[in-house]
Design a protein that fits this description.
CATH class of the largest domain: Alpha Beta
Largest sheet: 10 strands, mixed
CATH superfamily of the largest domain: Isopropylmalate Dehydrogenase
CATH architecture of the largest domain: 3-Layer(aba) Sandwich
Number of strands: 12
Helix content: 25-40%
Mean pLDDT: 94
Number of helices: 11
Bound molecules: adenosine-5'-triphosphate
Length: 334
């Protein structure tokens, strides 16, 4: 087919292969002009490749410029560095974008949640710079730079402008971490001045968490450092019905990786009951990012129609549908 573009597919670990296969079925039913190249990453391939992130996988994403990725597992404490963090570093995927939106018929405490978490992906405590000073004392370094903070602030404001959003809230703890979070805020303020049409505010992270659970509808676009963003993203996922629903993207200057917010869900892996919505919605974001706007809208509408009809629900949302049942319903709704 003319103009067929390649997308790198990374199945990942746990429920990754199940939700990825489900998403690919929908993309195939949509007849998108895409070709899929499968590459490996994650903890389940370590025995075969001696690494959780083969060079070949990174090269493939660099070539295609876009990947759709299932979750990859990490060992808590010890073990190899996370494949996710490695991929973000090697591809310089500096911005994590997580839209959090209420889903029709998924009853949660709040209706009308519609916010975007923009998280800096490359530094902060995630730089992985830890060492033992003396036995029993560990130092972990929080790195915040003007360059990365300015870049993420600009990404957040430009995104807000393009998406017709009204407000950007910078998340911080500069009352305690005066230098690091202070620098982050300075950068956000400076960039914010270039966007007078967008309201700018600053929110302390602990206050933000309280405000989010009291009234999430008062927020629009949140811009955060790496660690706060990681935590706030999961909190926000909980506001709209859980991890099975929330999509995400990690975006760099030349490449983008689309993946669900959730992890490998080892408790339900292999049972065929995972909710594939989060990865399907990540694919919706991917199509939009690739300028396949019509297809993106059609896919989003089909998923939302299944929720709107209220008949087919996976177990995480109190239903009895399998991954396959849900996928069949989305394809039927196309
Ligand atoms: P990891 O170590 O990979 O982060 P985890 O189990 O700690 O795995 P998640 O995978 O995010 O974290 O899962 C948290 C909980 O949410 C689990 O009970 C899991 O079953 C559930 N969950 C996550 N994703 C889904 C999904 N797509 N469908 C159904 N349940 C899910």
């Amino acid at each position: 087919m003319a103009n067929t573009r390649t997308v790198t597919i990374i199945n990942g670990d746990g429920i990754g292969p199940e939700v990825t296969a489900a998403t690919l079925r929908v993309l195939e039913a949509l007849k998108v002009p895409l070709e899929f190249e499968f590459k490996d990453a994650g903890s389940e391939i370590v025995a075969k490749f001696g690494t959780n992130l083969p060079h070949e996988t990174v090269e493939a994403v660099l070539r295609s410029g876009v990947a759709l990725k299932g979750p990859t597992g990490t060992v808590v404490g010890g073990g190899l560095p996370s494949a996710n963090v490695g991929l973000r570093k090697r591809l310089d995927l500096y911005a994590s974008l997580r839209p959090v939106k209420s889903v029709p018929n998924v009853k949660t405490r709040y209706d009308g949640v519609d916010l975007i978490v923009v998280r800096e992906n490359t530094e902060d405590l995630y730089a992985g710079l830890e060492h033992i000073i003396v036995p029993g004392v560990v130092e972990s370094l929080k790195i915040i730079t003007e360059k990365a903070s300015t870049r993420i602030a600009r990404f957040a404001f430009e995104y807000a402008k393009k998406a017709g959003r009204k407000k950007v809230s910078a998340v911080h703890k500069a009352n305690i971490m005066k230098l690091s979070d202070g620098l982050f805020l300075d950068c956000c303020r400076k960039v914010g001045r270039e966007f007078p049409e967008i309201q700018y505010e600053e929110v302390i992270i602990d206050n933000l968490c309280m405000q989010l659970v009291k009234d999430p509808t008062r927020f629009d676009v949140l811009v955060t450092e790496n660690l706060y963003g990681d935590i706030v993203s999961d909190l926000c996922a909980g506001l709209v019905g859980g991890l099975g629903l929330v999509p995400g993207a990690n975006i760099g200057e030349r490449t983008a990786v689309f993946e669900a917010v959730h992890g490998t869900a080892p408790d339900i892996a292999g049972k065929g009951i995972a909710n594939p919505t989060a990865l399907m919605m990540s694919a919706v974001m991917m199509l939009d990012w690739m300028d396949l706007r019509e297809e993106s809208k059609r896919m989003a509408n089909a998923i939302l129609k299944v929720y709107g009809d209220g008949k087919v629900r996976t177990g995480d949302l109190g239903g009895g549908a399998t991954t396959r049942d849900f996928t069949d319903a989305v394809i039927a709704a196309l």
